[in-house]
Amino acid sequence: MSLTTTEPAAPKKPSIVVTAGAIAVLSLLGLGGGWFVGNTLLVPASPAAATPVPAPAELAAAAVEGAHGAPAAGGEHGAAGAAAPSLIALDPIVTNLGYPTDKWIRLELALQFTGPGDTSLAQDLHQEMLTYLRTVSLQQLQGPRGFQYLRDDLREIVDLRSKGRVSKVLFRTFVIE
């Protein structure tokens, strides 16, 4: 009589096909979730996403006419003898951003003075705005809110420096590359 002993069967390992399938499904779920979050939360930072700010036709004509300190359209003296507001177009501001430093910004502005234009003040304001733009990061400029914050910051710089002699800061072009 022989005694045969049977050993209990070892637990079966999952097959390689099942493991590879599970990894593939989890990877696809991760990719899909990342794509969804990226498209819904993040604003694209490509040059194609940079939105130029169009100016109305009469603003463009007034900016060209007032480019050299000449009064804007209808620049005759009023009935009280006060000088009409003048529009001075600043030289384009082209500089790299504070972060990332490989991104560039081009900004063309015009300043509307309450009285006769002051070209030396306009050049000082140009330098102040250039210095400010070198400290701005790309994330601060993204989206409509970022553009609004930029407008507000530049307006504040102009108000502080000009002491009320500049009534408006007009954007002619705004490009981030």
Radius of gyration: 31 Å
Taking all residues together, what is the mean pLDDT?
Answer: 79
Percent of residues in beta strands? 15-25%
- Could you give the distance between the termini? 90 Å
Please name the CATH topology of the largest domain: Tetrahydropterin Synthase, Chain A
Point out poorly predicted stretches: 45-81
Structural class: alpha+beta
Our count of domains comes out at: 2
CATH superfamily of the largest domain: Band 7 domain
CATH class of the largest domain: Alpha Beta
**Helix share, percent:** 40-55%
SSE run: HHEEEHHHE
Which oligomeric form is depicted? Answer: single chain
Gross morphology is rod-shaped
Give a short account of the largest sheet. Answer: 4 strands, antiparallel
Note the total helix count: 5
Q: Provide the CATH architecture of the largest domain.
A: 2-Layer Sandwich
Record field, number of beta strands: 4
Protein name: Flagellar protein FliL
Function: Controls the rotational direction of flagella during chemotaxis.
Family: Belongs to the FliL family.
Organism: Agrobacterium bohemicum
Q: How would you portray this structure in words?
A:
Controls the rotational direction of flagella during chemotaxis. One of its GO terms (cellular component) is plasma membrane. This is Flagellar protein FliL. Its main location: membrane. By secondary structure, the protein is α+β, with helices and mostly antiparallel strands. It folds into two domains: 15-44; 47-75 and 83-176, Tetrahydropterin Synthase, Chain A, CATH 3.30.479. The protein contains five helices and four strands; from the N terminus they run H-H-E-E-E-H-H-H-E. The chain has helices at residues 16-41, 57-65, 119-133, 138-141, 143-162; strands spanning 86-89, 93-96, 104-113, 166-176. The radius of gyration is 31 Å and the shape is rod-shaped. Residues 45-81 have low confidence and may be disordered.
